[in-house]
Specification:
One of its GO terms (molecular function) is lyase activity. This is Acyl dehydratase. Helices cover 25% and strands 29% of the residues. It contains 10 helices and 13 strands. Strands 1, 2, 3, 4, 5, 6, 7, 8, 9, 10, 11, 12 and 13 form a 13-stranded mixed β-sheet that branches. Strand 7, helix 6 and strand 8 form a beta-alpha-beta unit. It is globular. Bound molecules: ligand LIB3CWND. The site of ligand LIB3CWND has 27 residues, from strand 3, strand 6, helix 5 and strand 10.
């Protein structure tokens, strides 16, 4: 006889007995068991983050040729320098390097388990930079984040707003390969009382939207000189250098769930359709890095990119879900000579938008653009 009824599976002589067998396949029994069981939770609530905390992320990731090529092909980043050795060498690389968008997405993906797996929204990112030498496949990535700030959301009492500075390092040399500052809304364990929505009060005071310029100028080509000439044509007139890109990319299982999982991004938003059915989007949503990389891919296909320098003021305005199509619109802000023969520096503003012409992402980008003469 055992003493199981007292929660003890020992026999009266003190020996352990087998736990009582349970028929887990009986659906009623199993439903009662699930009701009674605690869930081993993943991720951290807002309350876990305090300014100055340093978090060393446990997951690491080897930047593989497969990961790089899957990312680039699916987001339409088809620049030959990242695909062909001769084109890579001509650009000054030893071999086709890791694409900066894949590097950025992998750096962020590794952080999700600690920073944002609990849910919430990826609001934006700035100061995305690549301080190291070109990165090649086979590099092992180690990532750390520091909490820059935490804030109460005045419009959403169930969330807080956290900003982190993240650095992705070469695990072998410790060199920083990618760094940025990112802001997410993170669910609170306990909602707080707020002023009931600073957002709407602020919206009421918003000034009128500025008028569009009367003319949009399109560059004749994709070389540095083409952007500079277009800016000169727009100068002193009520005009902007701005145009849309023809390509679109409809979101599917690969882009929505496959690409983030390949960067170890465990955010349920991208792969758990069951949970997301009861969320504001009603469905899984595209990883912000996939949305922006796709829009950037469209933009790069209409220019002679030489090197990426950095990205600022990135914001994600609304969800992208399976079946949505990601398009891109570009405005050219400035084109600067840097005294180099091969390339000049151009600053762009890129907007990703969906099939309903609703902006889903915006951000600025600085890139070196090849000169026609080089
Ligand atoms: C998130 C939204 C639903 C919010 O929309 P809306 O209701 O219109 O609110 P506000 O625009 O007023 O913003 C709410 C509060 O957040 C602050 N905010 C907004 N942007 C930033 C920013 N870049 N930096 C700092 N703070 C920001 C505002 O000031 C408001 O503050 P408060 O008034 O005090 O409350 C909507 O924007 C939305 O749906 N966005 C899309 C989100 C998205 O789809 N992201 C990408 C996919 S999710 C993802 O990739 C997850 C990723 O894997 C990960 O883990 O991070």
């Amino acid at each position: 006889m055992t003493r199981e009824s007292q929660g003890d599976s020992r026999t009266e002589s003190g020996e352990r007995s087998e736990p009582r067998s349970i028929d887990w396949t009986d659906t009623e029994t199993f439903a009662r068991a699930l009701d009674r069981a605690d869930t081993r939770e993943k991720g951290n609530y807002f309350e876990a983050f305090a300014e100055g905390d340093l978090i060393e992320h446990d997951p690491g990731l080897t930047l593989t040729q497969w990961g790089n090529e899957a990312w680039m092909s699916q987001t339409l980043n088809h620049d030959p320098a990242y695909w062909r050795t001769d084109a890579a060498r001509e650009r000054g690389f030893d071999e086709p390097p890791v694409h900066p968008d894949y590097l950025t997405a992998a750096t962020l993906g590794i952080t999700v388990e600690d920073l944002s797996e609990k849910g919430g929204y990826f609001l934006g990112r700035t100061d995305v930079r690549y301080p190291g030498a070109p990165v090649y496949t086979g590099t092992e990535l180690r990532v750390e984040s520091e909490v820059v700030s935490t804030a109460t959301s005045s419009s959403r009492p169930e969330y807080g707003i956290v900003t982190w500075r993240t650095r992705g390092r070469d695990a072998e040399t410790d060199d920083v390969l990618c760094s940025y500052e990112r802001t997410n809304m993170i669910p609170r364990r306990e909602p707080v009382a707020t002023d009931g929505g600073g957002g709407s009060a602020a919206a009421a005071e918003e000034p009128d939207e500025p008028d569009l310029p009367s003319e949009f100028v399109t560059p004749d080509g994709g070389a540095f000189e083409d952007f500079r000439e277009a800016l000169e044509r727009a100068d002193d007139r009520d005009a902007a250098v701005a145009y849309r890109h023809e390509r679109g990319r409809t979101q599917d299982d690969t882009t929505v769930a496959g690409l983030p999982l390949a960067t170890l991004n465990t955010a349920k938003q991208h792969h758990n359709a069951d949970v997301m059915a009861n969320s504001p989007s009603g469905d899984i949503v595209t990883y912000g890095d996939v949305t922006r990389s796709t829009a950037l891919g469209h933009a790069r296909s209409d220019e002679d990119t030489y090197r990426e320098v950095g990205f600022d003021d990135e914001q994600f305005h609304t969800f992208v879900t399976p079946g949505d199509t990601v398009y891109a619109f570009t405005r050219v802000l400035e084109a600067e000579e840097t005294g180099r023969d091969e390339a000049g520096t151009v600053r762009f503003e890129h907007i990703a938008f969906n099939q309903d012409e609703t902006p889903v992402y915006s951000g600025t980008r600085t890139a070196e653009i090849r000169k026609r003469s080089s």
